[in-house]
Amino acid sequence: MVEIELMPDKLNDDDNRVNVEMTEGEIWFLKHFIKTYHPKKIVEVGIASGGNTVNLLKWKDEDAELFSVDVAKYMYKDKSKLSGYMAIDLGPNENWKLYGGYDYIDVYNEIGSDIDCIIIDTTHIMPGECLTFLAALPQLKEGCIVILHDIHFNCMRLKGARYSNIDTAKFSSGILYSSVRSNMKWTLSTYPMSNIGAFIIDNSTKDNIKDLFHALCTSWYKFPFEVDFTKYKEFVEENYSKDCSKLFNSCVDLYGNLFGANDYNTSDSARVDIINNNYSKDPVEIIYSSNVDVEFPSWFEYPEGKGAVLKTKERSFDVTLKCVKDGVLKISLRGPDVRVSSRRVPSSVNYTKVLIDNENMINKPIAACHDNSYVFKKEVKDGELVELHFEWEDYTAPSVLF
């Protein structure tokens, strides 16, 4: 491996420094890679105010695409402002897409492959950046530049007179930078140590990725309840080796037990949301229901229709509904809305049978939680009766502890 220390140069007067949580040297480091390598598809994960986004939109080639992702919909320092608000204020840009309020894995398919530059600057607490990188890696081209900020955040905070225990736990970026294999890495020449680094994706990165799964087991300061680990387990199983998947599941389950997250892994109730998209105020009428509570909550009212929410603790339930006007009936299988300390946590059930007008729609159990629903769609006519039958059981994870 070769690691090069880059000497920072001066920024231009029109380079943005406002609300960019980097030093001028670190801003230059980021600019250096954009201007030197001219990436055509750039992803930034962790955007805060959007100060860096403003620079990226200016520095990138005109036809290059930029995707900005932040799990927080609102700016963490000012909840009255959207994440990325500084870039939003610049106006529409056909080559820029903002995903505020989404984890990276939620928009994985929309972003797509052939990424040739990714900037990761998120929580810094394990699993943080390590988890984001594993979600993005299958989409990164060979030769992709990965830029990580705050690779020595925990050490840098020790310089100051005040620091907290959580500051010393912010080493996720550093774990990622030091664990990933690459034949070329860069840091910034600065005192006392570089707090920003970059590396290139090459054959050694993917061939030795299990090293990062081992590093993921490093101590977690807290459990990220906002992360849907059901989705991540399935993703890792599909994209990485069995050994990596086994290690990942065991790590998540162990920390889930430590922080009490696994108490909500499986739910004692199921939920199905139904709406008929036909721009009618009351798109469905419930003609018959058995073993299920039916609600038409005010929050489930949209311009395209008013939806029904079915909730039950019974493992088998039936509903017959009448469609109002022609439309597309959307049936979403979910788990309930379970929250811990105001944060929604994944609480899943396995649906084992779904009948629509006596036609079986699934041939194996389907895992679903509130934020990872499974959706069926059916074109319907005005006045059409639709018979629904559901059966479910406790959620079974793809793998278990050692």
Provide an overview of this structure.
It is built from twelve helices and 23 strands. The strands form five sheets. Strands 1-7-8-6-5-2-3-4 form an eight-stranded mixed beta sheet, with helices on both faces. Strands 10, 15, 19, 20, 21 and 23 form a six-stranded antiparallel beta sheet that branches. Strands 11-14-9-16-22 form a five-stranded antiparallel beta sheet, with no helix packed on it. The longest helix has 18 residues. Helix 1 runs parallel beside helix 2 and helix 5 crosses helix 8. The C terminus is likely disordered. By secondary structure, it is of the alpha+beta class.
Please outline what is shown here.
The protein has 402 residues and is α+β, with helices and mostly antiparallel strands. It is 24% helix and 31% strand. The chain contains twelve helices and 23 strands.
The total beta strand count reads 23
Content of β-strand: 25-35%
CA-based shape = globular
Contiguous low-pLDDT stretches (5 residues minimum) are 398-402
Helix percent reads: 10-25%
Query: How many angstroms does the end-to-end distance come to?
Result: 34 Å
Q: What is the alpha-carbon Rg in Å?
A: 24 Å
Q: Main sheet? A: 8 strands, mixed
Oligomer: single chain
Q: For the residues shown, what is the average pLDDT? A: 90
Structural class: alpha+beta
* Count of separate DSSP helical elements: 12
The strands making up the biggest β-sheet line up spatially as 1-7-8-6-5-2-3-4
Topology:
Blueprint: E1 2-6, H1 24-37, E2 41-45, H2 51-59, E3 65-70, H3 85-88, E4 96-100, H4 108-111, E5 115-120, H5 128-136, E6 140-149, H6 153-157, H7 165-168, H8 172-179, E7 184-188, E8 196-200, H9 203-207, H10 210-215, H11 229-239, H12 242-259, E9 270-277, E10 284-290, E11 293-295, E12 301-302, E13 305-306, E14 308-312, E15 316-323, E16 327-334, E17 339-340, E18 343-344, E19 349-356, E20 359-360, E21 366-368, E22 374-380, E23 385-394
Parallel strand pairs: 1-7, 2-3, 2-5, 3-4, 5-6
Antiparallel strand pairs: 6-8, 7-8, 9-14, 9-16, 10-15, 11-14, 12-13, 15-23, 16-22, 17-18, 19-20, 19-21, 19-23
